[in-house]
Every structure is written in structure tokens, then in C-alpha cells.
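In this section we walk through a basic example: taking a raw amino acid sequence and producing a predicted 3D structure, encoded as C-alpha cells. The instruction is simple. Fold the sequence below.
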Amino acid sequence: MSRALPFLVALLVLLAWWALSLTQPEILLPGPMQVLEAGWTGRVRLGTGLLNTALSSLGGLAIASGIGLGGATLFLRFSWLERAFYPYALFMQTVPIIAIAPVLVVWLGYGASVALCTAAIVCFFPILSSANAGLSSPSRSEVELLQLYGASWTQTLIKLRLPRALPTVLAGYRSAVGLSVIGAIVGEFVGATGDPVSLGYLVISSSRSADTATTFAAVCASAVLAGILFATVRAIEGWAIGAWHGHS
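The resulting C-alpha cell sequence is shown next.
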């Protein structure tokens, strides 16, 4: 029964959406069938936009992973680096990405590079903070025990800190993958030209032309993309740590 609850909630939301749409003009609130019809009619552009936004999201996630995981490792090795740079990493998280995106257009020009950069910026801090917390989680006695047996700093990192950090890092990625889609779409709002087409561009262009059903279809596609990425992280989590960390 518990597995059916999410589907029951989704059904109730769809029914409420459909009922509310009957009281509003389609230009204000299209119903589920109108959105589905718009998505099917524009399936080629919608599919292409989904693919391009996914590439920007994954590219930004890859950049953030390299910088975030590498930064957390350096913070662990050199504590003065953490004291010097962690506050600025936190500051990046507090600045609204919609305020940064226009500046990135000035620096990078129009195109997918803006979406790639905004996706990397918004998902950088969850990866850095989760990796930093996970790598620091082993107790001093555990570290000293390995050192007593002659383990080097690198061996301690590989044999103790990385396995211990894995659950925390993957929990951070659950947030990061959703944020990467949001960041990419925000970048597309200000930097996309429609060549290639993207979900952010479809949202902006269709809303400007009062094609609300297509706007909803693009928004739903972005939600599906974020859901797929989240489910992928959960699957990796179950495969990597489910057997010994109580993952269900």
C-alpha cells in the first residue's frame, strides 16, 4: 500500500488540476489534456530541448563535482584552505543565480555555456559541503589506529575516509542533481537563443506568445528530467551502499 501512495497523490493532484482548469480560461490554466496535447504536438522540439538541457545540467554537475570533491579533499589536507575559502563558497550559495546569469551572458556570450556555468554554480556547494562533512566524519581514534599500522595520509583517505564519506556525498548529490536542472534552465532564460532549442528557451518563448499549454509542457519536461536524475542517484546509492547502510 505504501508504494501506491505516491501514485494516489499524483492522481489526486491531476484531478484537482483538471477541476480547477475547468473554472479558468485555457490561457491562464490549461488542463492536463491540453498540456499533454501540446507536448505531443511539439514533441520533437520538446525532446530536443530536454536533451540539450540535460546535457547542460550534467555538464554543470560534472564541473561542480570536480571542483567540489577536489576542494573538499584539499580542505581535509590543508585546514588553512578551508578556513580561508569555505566562507566564500558559502557566499556563492547565498547569491541568487538569477542575479549572476546576466553577468555571465556579458562574459560568455549567448549560448549553452551560460546554462552550463549556472548549473555548475548552483550545485557546487551541496557537493562541496557534503564531501567536506563526509571526509571529516571518521573519529580521531580511527585515523590514529590506521596511522599506528603505518598507513599514509593517502591510504587513510582511500581506506577509511572515502568509504565513510560515500553516504553523505550521495545525499548531497540528491540535492545537487535537482539544482543542476534549475541552474541550467535559469541560464537558458537569459542566455538561450533558440539555437539549439532548450527547455528554458521553450518556457520563455511560449509564455511570451501566450502558449500556456506549451509552457506547462516544458515545465513538466524539466520536472521529469530532475526526477530521472534523482532516481539515478538513488539507484547508485542503493547499489553502492544499500547492503551495509540500510538503504531502502
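Looking at the output, two observations stand out. The mean pLDDT is 92. The chain has ten helices and no strands. In the next section we compare this with other chains.
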